[in-house]
Design brief:
- This protein is of the alpha+beta class and about 280 residues long.
- The protein has three domains: about 80 residues, no CATH class; about 80 residues, no CATH class; about 100 residues, Chitinase A, domain 3, CATH 3.10.50.
- Helix content is about 55%, strand content about 15%.
- It has ten helices and six strands.
- The strands form two sheets. The chain has a four-stranded antiparallel beta sheet. The protein has a two-stranded antiparallel ribbon with strand order 1-2.
- Strand 1 and strand 2 form a beta hairpin.
- The chain is flat, with a radius of gyration of 30 Å.
Length: about 280
C-alpha cells in the first residue's frame, strides 16, 4: 500500500514538473530517512524543463532513490566514524570560512582595484608589454548570416551582405528578423575568426592565407546558406589591438596589485580592530 502511494506521489510530482496543475502540496514529504525529509519541491526542481511525463517519472524515481541511498550512507557513516566526525566537522567549517573569505576578497579586489585603474595605466601597460598580446588566432570584423536554404529573397541577401552601406545593413536587419537563424553584426568589434568559422561547415587549414585571399564567404549545405563578409582582419602572429585586450589588461593589472592591496587591507582591518576594541590580545 505504501509503495502504491509512493508511485502515485511520484506521478503527481511529474505532472507538477510538466506545468500541469498539481493536486498535492509542494511542502509534502515524499521520502524520509531518520530525521531527514525530501520534499516534492526539491524533486521537481531536478526534472528537466519540457520533459514528458514518462521521462519525468524516470528522473523523479532516479533522484529519490539516489537521495535515499546517499542519506542512508551518510547516516551510517555519521554513527560509525566516532571521533573522526568531529574532525570532519572542523574541516568543513574551516573550508566554509576559507571560501567565504575568498569570495569576499575577490569581489572587493575587483571592485576597488578596477575603479583605481585609469585608462592611461592600461595604455601604458599595453605599450610596454606588446609581446604579451601576440595573437594565437586571427581576428575579424564583419557580418555573418545563417539562413534556411529555402528562405525567400536569398539572392537579394547575397548582394546586400557584401556591402557595408547603411541601406544594405537596414535591409539585412529587417530581413533577418523574419528569416535568419543567426544574424551577427560585428563591424564594430574584433572577434575570433575560428569562433565565427565554427558556425560554417567549411574546413580551413591555413587561416592566415585564407583571410588574405577571401573577403566574402558563401557556403551551403542541404539545410542552410552561410554568408560571411570580412570587412577587416588581423592575422595570427600580429599584436592584438588595444580594444580587443582591454579586459585582459585590467585583469593583469589587478593581479599585479593584488598582494599589495590584500596586505594593506588586512593590516588596516587588524589595526582598526585593536583600536576600536573588537580585538583583544591577552598580555
Amino acid at each position: 500500500m505504501r509503495h502504491s502511494y509512493f508511485i502515485i506521489t511520484l506521478l503527481i510530482v511529474c505532472l507538477s514538473a510538466c506545468k500541469q496543475t498539481p493536486t498535492i502540496s509542494d511542502a509534502e514529504v515524499i521520502a524520509t530517512v531518520g530525521d531527514r525529509a525530501l520534499r516534492i519541491s526539491e524533486v521537481t526542481q531536478m526534472i528537466p524543463r519540457g520533459a514528458t511525463p514518462a521521462d519525468s517519472l524516470l528522473h523523479a524515481e532516479s533522484y529519490v532513490k539516489k537521495w535515499v541511498k546517499d542519506a542512508l550512507v551518510d547516516d551510517i557513516a555519521s554513527r560509525n566514524l566516532g571521533d573522526e566526525k568531529a574532525e570532519i566537522d572542523r574541516l568543513v567549517d574551516d573550508y566554509r570560512r576559507s571560501l567565504t573569505r575568498y569570495r569576499y576578497l575577490e569581489r572587493l579586489i575587483r571592485e576597488r582595484l578596477s575603479a583605481d585603474i585609469r585608462e592611461s595605466d592600461k595604455l601604458n601597460y599595453y605599450e610596454e608589454n606588446q609581446q604579451k598580446f601576440v595573437l594565437e588566432k586571427g581576428l575579424v570584423k564583419g557580418l555573418f548570416l545563417k539562413l534556411p536554404i529555402d528562405a525567400p529573397g536569398l539572392s537579394d541577401v547575397k548582394g546586400w551582405y557584401k556591402s557595408t552601406s547603411n541601406e544594405s545593413l537596414e535591409k539585412i536587419e529587417k530581413y533577418s528578423v523574419q528569416n535568419a537563424i543567426i544574424y551577427d553584426y560585428f563591424y564594430d568589434r574584433w572577434v575570433d575568426f575560428d569562433e565565427v568559422m565554427d558556425n560554417i561547415p567549411m574546413r580551413i587549414t591555413n587561416s592566415n592565407e585564407f583571410l588574405r585571399t577571401n573577403k566574402h564567404i558563401e557556403v551551403s549545405d542541404s539545410s542552410y546558406c552561410y554568408l560571411l563578409n570580412i570587412n577587416e582582419y588581423i592575422p595570427s602572429g600580429k599584436i592584438a589591438p588595444y580594444d580587443y585586450v582591454g579586459t585582459q589588461i585590467v585583469d593583469l593589472l589587478i593581479n599585479q596589485r593584488r598582494m599589495e592591496y590584500l596586505k594593506q587591507f588586512e593590516d588596516e582591518l587588524y589595526n582598526d580592530g585593536i583600536k576600536n576594541g573588537r580585538v583583544k590580545l591577552s598580555k
